[in-house]
Each structure stands twice: as C-alpha cells, then as structure tokens.
C-alpha cells in the first residue's frame, strides 16, 4: 500500500540559505511513515498491545532539489522489502510541480518493548511486504 500526505513548508523549517533545512526532511519523512502505519492498520497502540515497537535503524537519504517557504510538498511512502526483524520503507517527497525533492530508504526494526531487543516482524506488519511492490 502506498500512502501520500501533503504539507506546506513553514517559516520555522527554513535555514539561513532560504530553503528547508536538511534535518526537517527527516521530520517530514517521519510524518509520512506515521501516516503509512495508521492507514495500513498498524498504529503504535496496536503494536504496543502485543509488546512490539518499531525503531529506525538507518535512513539513506538523497536530497535532489531545494524546497522553499510556502511550497506544498507531497510525501509518498510505500513498503520496499523485509527481512526477519527488519523492513525497508521507500519514501519520496515531491514539490507542487511534481519534481522529486528528496528520496529515502528507511530501515525499521521491530523490537520487544520489554527486552529492548529485536524480534521477528509480527504478521500485522510483515503482511504488507508480501504483495508485489507498487510502482
């Protein structure tokens, strides 16, 4: 399942160069992932109920084009692949002219909330990676 959310660049997200600060893109991607989890039917409280949490282990990000104050950005998130305890989400951010601004592959790991150690992906999450990847 691919999800999309739209945001508007705010004044507090701009750096001295007059464009979005690189750290803000990490936050935008997080908003996109939270939206994906919720729309996929796996909100944090459902994972927490089975003693599972998700943590970001790695973000591989490429900045392609600057975004500026007031621009509308579209954040797209979709499953990429999975391992035993980890999974990859592909994310892209486009501007209002449909130009690629940023793209990332985010590695998530499922952990036991009690032991704070990695555990196999629960079915509720793993099942989203068994379908053919959307393009």
UniProtKB/TrEMBL annotation:
SUPFAM superfamilies: Thioesterase/thiol ester dehydrase-isomerase. Transmembrane segments: none annotated. It comes from the Bacteria. Keywords: Hydrolase. It holds the Pfam family 4HBT_2. One of its GO terms (molecular function) is fatty acyl-CoA hydrolase activity. CDD domains: 4HBT (cd00586). NCBIfam families: YbgC/FadM family acyl-CoA thioesterase. Belongs to the 4-hydroxybenzoyl-CoA thioesterase family. This is Acyl-CoA thioester hydrolase/thioesterase-3. It comes from Seinonella peptonophila.
């Amino acid at each position: 399942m691919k999800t999309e959310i739209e945001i508007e660049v705010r004044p507090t997200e701009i750096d001295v160069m007059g464009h979005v600060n690189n750290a803000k893109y990490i936050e935008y991607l997080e908003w996109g992932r939270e939206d994906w989890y919720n729309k996929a039917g796996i909100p944090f409280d459902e994972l927490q109920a089975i003693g599972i949490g998700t943590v970001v282990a790695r973000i591989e990000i490429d900045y392609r084009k600057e975004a500026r104050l007031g621009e509308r950005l579209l954040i797209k998130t979709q499953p990429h692949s999975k391992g035993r305890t980890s999974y990859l989400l592909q994310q892209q951010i486009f501007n209002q002219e449909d130009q690629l601004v940023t793209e990332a592959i985010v590695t998530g790991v499922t952990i036991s909330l009690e032991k704070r150690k990695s555990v196999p992906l629960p079915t509720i999450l793993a099942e989203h990676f068994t379908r053919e990847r959307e393009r």
